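If you are new to this repository, start here. Below is one unmodified record pulled from the training split, so you can see the exact layout before writing a loader.
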Amino acid sequence: MSLNVKWMDLLIEVAAEDEKLFAARGAKLVICIQRSITEEVGRRIERSIEMDGIERGNAAKIAGVTAFWIRKLKPLYVEPSAESSKTYAFINELVSIQVGVAICNRYFSDSGLKGIRVNRRVLKDWLTSLRYHSHSPQSAMIAFELLACET
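And here is the target side for that same chain:
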């Protein structure tokens, strides 16, 4: 993959961090990752990069494509328990954005970028849009490009 982005490692890191964040707020949450779906996510990311001609694309473009396919194919689920409910229905959308941000922050190091983050209001709107509206890999690439430019 372009830039040697280790998106699966970031997906695992982000899911583990989210479990800790939810635990700190009193919610016992186990986020499960479906291996067969992540393998398909990887194939789709590669295909999108090849088809769009972004083999040498920057981290924001790779982040957008990766976030799109994680959100689209939904490899994550919350282990059912008495505490889990529709509150966690947005877990794939949340993690997809977080992985995209992590890609930008980890792989933009040589461009002088200090690190990007998404404020709460924008995150809430973005999550809702990803959940209920149509998006494309290109729209996700543009979103991450704009986010990276704002920093």
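Two things worth knowing about this chain: The chain has one domain: 2-149. Residues 7 and 22 are 22 Å apart (CA to CA).
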